[in-house]
Amino acid sequence: MYNDEFLETAVNDELYFDLKQKKAADSLKKKKELKKLDKNYQEYTIPFNRIWTDGKYHKYITITNYGSGSTGTLIRNAVTGARYNIVVGSAEQDILFKVCEATGHDGRMEPLMLYYDTPEQYEEHHFTTVSLDVKLKWHSRATEAQKKMGLEPYVPYVIIN
What we know:
There is one protein chain. By secondary structure, the chain is an alpha+beta fold. It folds into two domains: 1-37; 40-149, no CATH class. It has helices spanning 3-37, 119-126, 132-149, and strands spanning 41-51, 57-66, 74-76, 83-87, 97-101, 112-116. A two-stranded antiparallel ribbon has the order 1-2. A two-stranded antiparallel ribbon has the order 3-4. The protein has a two-stranded antiparallel ribbon with strand order 5-6. It is globular and about 55 Å long.
C-alpha cells in the first residue's frame, strides 16, 4: 500500500466518524425534543448535598419522571418510560407503587402520576426514603391484587436493624 492509499483511508475514516457523531447528536436532539412534547415527561435538577446509599456525595441530582396519563391510558414506569399492559384506574394498578408528584417543578400546574414496580424503586429514583408502614401497606395491597390476577406474589427482602 502506498502513502496515497493510507491518506485516503484515514480521510474517509475521519469523515465517516464525523458523520456518525453528527447523526448521533441529531438523534439525541430529536429525542430530547420529543420528550419535551410529552406532557407527562418531566426533568428537573435540585440541590442535594448529601452522601447517598451508593456511597457518593451528590451536590445536585437530576430527576427524570415519566408520568402516566389519565384514566383509561396505559401506565408507564416512572423511571424507564416503558409502558405496562395495565390501565390507569384498573384494579391491576394496585400491583404498582403509585406516587403523585405535585411539587410544581418547572412551573408545572397539574400533578404527575408516577408508577413504580416497588417503593424501593421510588426511593432510588427520588433519592428519598419511604416509611416501613407505607411499604407494608403497599405490599399487602399488591399481594392481594396479584392473587386476584393469578400472579405469583412479589416477596421483598426487608432488612430491619
